[in-house]
C-alpha cells in the first residue's frame, strides 16, 4: 500500500490542538462493523453498534466502503471541530441531511466521471433519500455506542494534558512518534499515511488537529487539504480500559513502539549517565550492537555520548527524558 506524505516542517514550531469530536469515531465504527474495513474495533463494541443499527445498515453504507470504488463525500467526511462538551454529532448528521442532492452528484461525477460505478448508481437515482438514510443509520449506530463515548471523558482529559505537556516541553516529536504503526508513521519531519491514492501535502502555517478515536485501535482517518487545519485521527491511548472484555489485556509499551524495544530500554535505564559497557550488559548484546543503538538515539537528539578517559559515557538529553515521561503516561 502506498503512502500519502504530509510535510510538517520544524516540529518545535507546530501549532497542535487535541480535538474532541465524535464524528471520526462514528465513521471508524461503521467502517469496521458494516463496511468490512477492519479498524480494530473490539467485538463487544461491535455488538453494541449492531444492537441499535437498522437491518439494512450495511446495504445503505455499502457505496462508501465498496472495494475499488470507496469514497467519502465531503458532506459525510467529518469537519472536526473542537467540542469541549463532547457534542456535535447532531450538527454532523444535520449537515448530511441538508446536503443538496446536486452537490453530492457533482462530487461523485467529478471523482468517477460520467459513468458512475454500479455501487453508486442507486444513490444517483435518489440522492436525497440516500443521504437521509445514511444519517438515520449513523444516528442509530451511535445510540448503542454513546455510553462508551461518554465514559471516555477521563481519557480525553488525560490526552489534553499529555499533548499539552509535550508541546510545552518542546517534545512534540514524542507524540508524533507514537503514531508509528502500519498505517501511520512519523519520520524526518514527515507523516506517512497509508493511502490507495497517494498525494503530497505541506502543513505550512495550518494547525495540526489531533483527533483521538475511541472506537478503534488501528484507525485510518484524516483530512489534509482544508485551508485552516489538518486533522489526523489516531487511537485514543488507554481506550481498552473502557471495554470490560479487554481489561486483562497487557498494556502496550508505546515507547518501544516509537523507538524500538532495545532503545526504549536504553532511554529508561539512563536516569543517570552510564558507560557503553553498562548499556551492553543491560541489553545483553555485544558492544558494537549497543553502540549502534546509542548512535541512533544520538542522531535523534535523545541522548549524548561523551568520552571520559578510556570510557564512553551516555546520558539522556532533556528531549530524551521528555520522551520517556510522555510515553510513561500512556498505554494503548
What would you note in describing this structure?
This protein is of the alpha/beta class. The chain contains 14 helices and eleven strands. It has helices at residues 22-33, 43-52, 57-65, 89-97, 101-112, 121-125, 127-151, 153-168, 172-177, 254-259, 261-269, 276-283, 287-299, 318-328; strands spanning 3-7, 16-18, 184-187, 190-194, 200-202, 207-213, 221-223, 229-235, 274-275, 303-308, 311-316. The protein has a four-stranded mixed β-sheet with strand order 3-4-1-5, with no helix packed on it. It has a four-stranded mixed β-sheet with strand order 2-6-8-7. It has a three-stranded antiparallel β-sheet with strand order 9-11-10. Mean pLDDT is 87; it is low at 245-250.
Q: Summarize this, please?
A:
With 332 residues, the chain is α/β, with parallel strands linked by helices. It is 45% helix and 15% strand.
